[in-house]
Amino acid sequence: AAVLNGTELRKLQPIKEGVIIIGNESKGISAEVLALCRNRITIPRHGQAESLNAAVATGIILSHII
Hints:
The protein has helices at residues 31-34, 54-65, and strands at 2-8, 41-42. The chain is of the alpha+beta class. It has one domain: 3-Layer(aba) Sandwich (Alpha/beta knot), CATH 3.40.1280.10. A two-stranded parallel ribbon has the order 1-2. Helix 1 links the parallel strand 1 and strand 2 (41-42).
């Protein structure tokens, strides 16, 4: 699950399979779905921005974990 306070992408090992959950830009991931997730990940950021476009965030995450 992509969240604001997860493990930074740079600290993750490459993975071979899994599911990435991306919430929408304004509401994030619902509490019900988040409760089902084993891992929480974060894109490192500079400044106080709270979100990225969901498609951009997905691309960044995929480029780091594959």
